[in-house]
Amino acid sequence: MLCENRIRELLIAMGVPVRLVFYDSTDSTNNRAREWAKGDYTGGCVAFLARKQTAGRGRRGRTFLSEEGGIYLSLLVRPDKNTKTERITGEAATTVLSVVERLTGLSVGIKWVNDLYINGKKCAGILTEGEFDENGNLAYFVLGLGINVYKINNFSSKMPIATTLEDEVDREKEAKNREVRLPDINRLCAEIIASLLSTDTPSVSDYKKRCILLGKRVLIKRGDSEFFATALDVCEDYSLLIRLDGGEEIALGSGEVTTVFNP
């Protein structure tokens, strides 16, 4: 399981300047981070980490199953003037993907805008939240990440569209498709924190190369409406360029997008 002292040791060894707040269990690390931000928070990055969440959530208020065996992490950051808010989630998704692939050998894709997929199943999700000050500037943002690492009892029956890194490593080993390995969860967690706080940010082109929706027919849900389109491209602000069935092309800044067939 996650070990607070081990993660601290790894972060110190890597020279990562972050304050770590650790919970055996909490409702949501994003909630804890937002509470911290409303207090005496003056800046610097604070990482909130839990072995288990009782009320983990994803986009649009969906439940994110958060039992022991995963990484449930929220980074509280006060942005500088150069932070481009529309790029935070997309850059984070590409960064986490790179760490997971490097440490496991698995092939990972991104489902616009914030989910990581392996072999057609979700293995991680990102939820970014924040607040603006009276001048309309972003006062802080919270980057929340949930990643399924180790096998969880009855996981497939509870979450049939999801998977864990351990399940996918075992599947690849059995198929002998590639050299894969299951990393220590503490090493994986520390490497993810270090990479998310690095000044080396990925580009939109890096994101596009791993986006599993491009070129596919997709179903889009926005509010109470649903419609079909073809996913064409990811724009510089990480909006999704789609072509409607009537031929019109629009950049989609929000909405729930799924492929007509499983990605």
Write up this protein.
By secondary structure, the protein is α+β, with helices and mostly antiparallel strands. It folds into 2 domains: 4-210, 2-Layer Sandwich (BirA Bifunctional Protein, domain 2); 217-259, SH3 type barrels, CATH 2.30.30. The chain has helices spanning 4-13, 29-37, 88-104, 155-158, 165-175, 185-196, 204-210, and strands at residues 19-23, 46-50, 70-77, 109-111, 115-118, 121-132, 138-148, 217-222, 225-234, 240-244, 249-252, 256-259. The strands form 2 sheets. The chain has a 7-stranded mixed beta sheet, with helices on both faces. A 5-stranded antiparallel beta sheet has the order 11-10-9-8-12. α3 (88-104) runs antiparallel to α6 (185-196) and α3 (88-104) crosses α7 (204-210). The radius of gyration is 18 Å and the shape is globular.
Helix-strand string: HEHEEHEEEEHHHHEEEEE
Which class best fits the helix and strand makeup?
A: alpha+beta
What is the domain tally?
Answer: 2
Q: Low-confidence parts, pLDDT < 50 over ≥5 residues?
A: none
CATH topology of the largest domain: BirA Bifunctional Protein, domain 2
Strand order across the largest sheet: 1-2-3-7-6-5-4
Shape: globular
Share of helix among residues?
Answer: 25-40%
- What's the CATH C level of the largest domain? Alpha Beta
Strands, count: 12
- C-alpha termini separation: 31 Å
